[in-house]
Amino acid sequence: MKKNCYAIFMAAILTCSCAGNVQQNKEEVTYQGNTVTVDLESPILPKLNYATLAEQPFSNEFRTVGTVQAETGHFAEVNVPFDGRVTRSLVSLGTKVSAGQTLFEMSSPDFLEASKAYLQNVKIFEKAKADYERKKVLVEHGITSKKELEEVLVEYENARQDMEASAATIRAYGNDPASVKMGQNMRIVAPISGEVVYNGVTVGAFTKADSDPLITIADLKKVWVNALIKERFIGTVVKGGQAEIVPESGVGEPIMGQVINVGNMVDEETRSVQVVISCDNQNLLLKHGMYVSVHFLSEQQNAIVVPSTAVFQGEENSYVFVCTDQKNVFEKRQVELGGNNDDNSQICIKNGLKAGERIITVGGLYLNN
To answer: How many Å separate Cα 126 from the centre of its chain?
Structure first.
C-alpha cells in the first residue's frame, strides 16, 4: 500500500514539473500572425545566428544519373526477313560498314519464291510492252483499231504494276532487283553506316524471321544521354543549357553536353521529367546503355542566396525568419525558391527577400510553432 502511494505521489510531481516546463516554453516564444517574439531572458536568443543579405553570383547546380544511347537513326538491329540458312558472312565484330553494304548471305526458300515471282513478272511485262509497241504501229498504219490498242494498254499497265510490286519486295530486303538471278542467295545489308557492335552470325546455322537480331550496328560518335530530373529542378533546366557528363567508371575527363529537349510529361511514379542531352563522343568513351553521372550547370547570375539551414518548408510554402528592429522579434516570411548549388548548402531566393535584410541562418527551428 505504501509503495502504491509513493508511486502516485512521484507521478504527480513529474506531471506538475512537465506542465511547468511546457508553460515556460510557451512563454519563451509567442506567436501573433507571422510575428514571432522571443522572451529577452530566453536561452533561445544566444543560439540564433544571423546574416545580412546581399546579391552574389550564383549558378544553379544539381546532379542526377543518365543512360547513354545512340542518336535516333544511328543504331540498328538487323534481323532476317525470311527463314533460311546462313551461307556466307562478310563482317566481323568491330567492322566499319556503310549503309547498303552486304553483311551476310543466306539461302531462303521464301526469297527464292520472291525472286522467281519477280523474274516471271519481268518476262510478262516485257511481252506486254512488246505487244503494246506493235499495236501502236498497227494503229498508226490503220491496220488495227484503237479499241484493240486500249485493251493491250490495260494489259501492259497491269504487267508493269505487278513487276514494280515484286521489285519493291526485293528492295525491301536490301537487294537490287536488277541483279536478281534465279537461285541467287539473299543478301542481308546494313541499314545504316556505323560499326558492328554485335555479331551473332554463324555460317551454316538455320535462322528464322522471328529470331533475335543477328547483327547490331551503331554509330556512337555522337550520342544522347537520357536523364531524369525531379519536378523541383524543371525550371532550372532549359533547352540549350549545358550539362557535364561523367561515366560511372570515372575514366577520362568530363564530357560537356547540350540539352536538346526537356520533356513535357511528368512520370506519375517517380515525379520526374526526362531530359535529353546531346554529346560528342569521338573517343567513344560513352557506350550504348552505359550509366553516367549528369551534372547540370547554369550561367552565373546575381541573386539573393541563403544557407539551406535558413529555409523551412510549411504545408504549402517555404519560409524564413527575418529580423526586425527589435532583436527579439522576427517575421515569418514566405519566400519563392529558385535553384540550389551542387551540395544543397545554398538556395537561391527568387522572391520574398531583398538585399540589406537580415535573416536567421541557424536556430530558426527554435521559432517554429
So the answer is: 53
List Cα–Cα distances, 339 to 229, 231, 315, 343, 359, in angstroms. 13, 12, 20, 12, 19
Non-local CB neighbours of 60 within 8 Å, separated by 6+ positions: 236, 296, 297, 298, 338, 339, 340, 341, 348
Axis-axis angle for helices 146-172, 109-140 (nearest 10)? 160
Cα dihedral across residues 132, 135, 139, 140: positive or negative: positive
d(CA 158, CA 121): 10
Contact criterion met (CB below 8 Å) for 194 and 97: yes
Chain centroid to CA 10 = 65
CA atoms 202, 206, 209, 212: torsion sign: negative
Q: And the C-alpha cell for 229? A: 530530373
- The pTM for the full model equals 0.61
**What mean pLDDT do residues 44-59 have?**
90
